[in-house]
């Protein structure tokens, strides 16, 4: 339960920050950077493969694709909460030459 509360708190913080920067909608020209794609071309490839992490949509009379800032914030918060496998503890004596 605590983890869910942490995700909700982080989602709110990210939503607030992203909304201040971009408003309630994020254009795809910003999404590729936020999602961590290497380039706009990589982002377009993910779109073509239908493997984007959140849904995009078009708006009549506007150019490009958009995603809701809240959806992006929620996805980012969930990603940050996933456990990363711990690296083995370093041996303080490892690498020390005892010749």
Provide a descriptive summary of the structure in words.
With 99 residues, this protein is mainly alpha-helical. It has one domain. The chain contains 4 helices and 3 strands; from the N terminus they run αβααββα. Strands 1-3-2 form a 3-stranded antiparallel β-sheet. A hairpin with a 6-residue loop joins strand 2 and strand 3. Helix 1 (2-22) packs across helix 4. It is globular, with a radius of gyration of 19 Å. The mean pLDDT is 86.
Structural class: mainly alpha
Number of alpha- plus pi-helical segments: 4
Name the helicity range. Answer: 40-55%
Which range does the strand content fall in? 5-15%
By DSSP, the count of extended strands is 3
Please state the average pLDDT score: 86
Tell me the radius of gyration.
19 Å
Number of spatially distinct domains: 1
Strand order of the largest sheet: 1-3-2
Q: Could you state the order of secondary-structure elements as H and E?
A: HEHHEEH
Largest sheet: 3 strands, antiparallel
């Amino acid at each position: 339960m605590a983890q869910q509360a942490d995700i909700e708190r982080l989602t709110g913080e990210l939503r607030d920050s992203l909304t201040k920067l971009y408003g309630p909608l994020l254009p795809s020209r910003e999404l590729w950077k936020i999602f961590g794609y290497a380039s706009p071309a990589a982002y377009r490839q993910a779109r073509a493969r239908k493997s984007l992490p959140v849904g995009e949509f078009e708006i009549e009379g506007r150019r490009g694709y958009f995603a809701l800032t809240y959806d992006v914030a929620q996805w980012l918060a969930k990603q940050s909460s996933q456990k990363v496998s711990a690296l083995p503890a370093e041996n303080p004596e490892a690498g020390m030459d005892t010749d």
